[in-house]
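Write out the bound-state structure for flavin-adenine dinucleotide.
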Amino acid sequence: VTGVSARDPSGRSIAVRARAVVVACGALHTPLLLARSGVASEHLGRHLTIHPVVAAWGLFDERVDARRAVPQGYVIDEHHDDGLLFQGAFAPLDVCGPLFTDVGPAWTRLIERFDHLACFGFMIEDDGEGRVRAGPGGRPLVTYSLTRADVARLRRGVTMLAEVYFAAGAREVLPAVRGFDRLGGARDVARLGRAPVVASDFDVTAYHPLGTCRMGRDPARSVIGPDHRVHGFEGLFVADGSAVPCSLGVNPQLTIMALADRAAEHVARSLEGPS
Ligand SMILES: Cc1cc2nc3c(=O)[nH]c(=O)nc-3n(C[C@H](O)[C@H](O)[C@H](O)COP(=O)(O)OP(=O)(O)OC[C@H]3O[C@@H](n4cnc5c(N)ncnc54)[C@H](O)[C@@H]3O)c2cc1C
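---
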């Protein structure tokens, strides 16, 4: 690798000669950039993990005023070894409003009680994985499948969350699981715990794409080596979430920053000696 060539928004070509090139476009774009640049590993873009997230709302008689706080400071980590991490979260009314499954007058009644809602989500440590490849216009096309183990974990997480809300005095829980718009108490929670749910019954979101240029010693099983260098290329490094070789089960930013620090040391070492 001898540098970077690019085009600016006006279409002008730019060429930068460099002895080391570090790609850090994130787990959805880095594999596409590398593929466009001639890297052909069969693992490029594969092994995508995302930490699938499901959230549930608790409706309380008292005002909660969740939007005035920073609820992400609250976590339940007792079940982390089972791949479940619960975190508080909240967003303004215009973001939350469209997420509720109620419509018409029921939606209006719920919105009028917005200050009485609490929201917690949980992420699971992925059992399944996905893939990113070039879609229309070269943009990332992401596919991902939840396994049965993932679905069982989602159901376990959402029933535990409902139990927590009711123990805290919630009047109702809105779990956003198909067929379970509202839970009124322990009996409904038990019904959800037994229901034959499938992946598409859950309202899943994700915020942590990782793993699409996974790190490993064996070039037959990974895209980059432990020194962050792309297997088979001199002077080409990856330093972002795509390097993380497995689902972390925790928010990944600090790990990604630590890896970037580590990558910088390897890049610096590779530049020692005659230019
Ligand atoms: C809503 C949300 C909330 C989150 N909350 C948390 C949290 O609380 N804690 C936590 O740890 N993590 C959180 N995350 C995850 C965290 O933000 C990501 O894991 C992290 O930012 C990924 O870092 P990265 O360096 O891999 O990629 P990114 O931070 O995505 O950086 C990649 C950069 O490359 C640029 N880029 C892409 N393609 C190109 C190209 N072709 N040419 C030039 N530049 C390009 C992008 O514009 C971007 O700036 C959250 C994510 C989201 C979406």
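---
The CA atoms of residues 105 and 145 lie 36 Å apart.
The radius of gyration is 22 Å.
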